[in-house]
Design brief:
The chain contains 15 helices and no strands. With 336 residues, the chain is mainly alpha-helical. The protein has one domain (9-315): Na+/H+ antiporter like fold (Up-down Bundle), CATH 1.20.1530.20. 45% of the residues are buried.
Length: 336
């Protein structure tokens, strides 16, 4: 297995660079206000393009596989929150109560869209079902994530108005998404032709949110609250959470009798969490001074899941055509 697969991608390097810039040169005062407005506009554009890129034909093609979709939704919105609560006695001492709120927020998020579909495609899984499941997860997450955040973070007395949060997210994320779907008939082909450079619009939106969030957090003393030992503990906590999610989705798909293509889709759609959705949602759900701590677990989990899933997808891709994987060949135990 090539060492390159374990190295961070360009976008992850950009995230690290933005965090460093925000730590050294945080936006404050009127500059922070201006960045806030620009960030909100960028988030709207991000979800407008998501709506314009999503093919209705692809959704219809995969929509009929309801057993698979129910299992993916259950893993995303039930299994992950239960893991977050169950692991608290073990992981909270490693990262502290405030960062563990970020772990719980991570557990409440929908699945990724692009990377889940990309890994499913690489591993020769059920691509139409992956498109439908990942897209629906992202869409339903607009309503389910605020409810889960209220339930999970209420354990620590941190939840606000759920209905207000849903209203804000609907206005900032869902309305642009629906507008993009409506505009797809006119701009869909143009978006398809230019998807290679339009991805930089997605990435720039996330980088803006990260810079704004970490600027506010740095001014509030973020790095005095997160020493190196705690950061290492957070990496370990994210690895444990991901390993359990991968193992659970793999075993559930097998026990419920899904074929290998469906099990691949369940594995990659049910075990991943969306940075592209989670960062903008945090901007809406939480006070700006707390966002840095809350999205730090998500940023680490995002990179870890990409590296691990790249290895797993490559292993699945190497299987012979028409040959199933035996019970002893569990992807979560792969060394290379």
């Amino acid at each position: 297995m090539s060492l390159k697969r374990f190295l961070p991608d360009n976008f992850t390097c950009a995230l690290v660079a933005v965090v460093a810039i925000a730590s050294l040169f945080p936006a404050s005062g009127q500059t922070a206000v201006a960045f806030g407005w620009i960030t909100n506009l960028a988030i709207g554009l991000l979800f407008f393009l998501h709506g314009a890129k999503l093919s209705r034909q692809a959704i219809i093609a995969g929509a009929g596989h309801w057993r698979l979709h129910l299992l993916v939704f259950a893993c995303t919105f039930i299994l992950f929150p239960l893991l977050g609560l169950a692991l608290k006695p073990l992981l909270s001492p490693m990262v502290g109560d405030e960062l563990y709120l970020g772990m719980l927020y991570l557990c409440a998020l929908p699945a990724t869209v692009q990377s889940a579909i990309a890994f499913t495609s690489l591993a020769r899984g059920n691509i139409p079902a992956a498109i439908c499941s990942a897209a629906a997860s992202s869409l339903f997450g607009i309503f389910l994530t605020p409810i889960l955040v209220a339930l999970l973070l209420n354990v620590h007395g941190e939840a606000g108005s759920t209905l207000d949060a849903i209203g804000k997210i609907t206005l900032q994320l869902l309305v642009p998404f629906v507008a993009g779907q409506i505009a797809r008939r006119w701009i869909g082909e143009w978006v398809g032709r230019n998807k290679n450079w339009l991805k930089f619009v997605d990435q720039s939106s996330i980088l803006l949110v990260v810079y704004t969030a970490f600027s506010a957090a740095v001014i509030e003393g973020l790095w005095h609250q997160v020493p190196l030992q705690t950061l290492i503990g957070l990496v370990v906590a994210c690895c444990i959470l991901l390993a359990l999610a991968l193992l659970a989705t793999h075993l559930l798909g097998k026990w419920l009798g899904f074929n290998i293509e469906d099990r691949i889709t369940i594995l990659f759609c049910g075990s991943k969490k969306s940075l592209a959705t989670g960062v903008p949602m945090a901007q809406v759900l939480f006070a700006s001074s707390t966002i840095g701590l809350l999205i730090l677990p998500l940023m680490l989990f995002h990179q870890i899941q990409l590296m691990v899933c790249a290895v797993i997808a490559q292993r699945y891709a190497q299987r012979p055509e028409g040959i199933n994987i035996t019970a002893t060949d569990q992807p979560t135990g792969s060394k290379g």
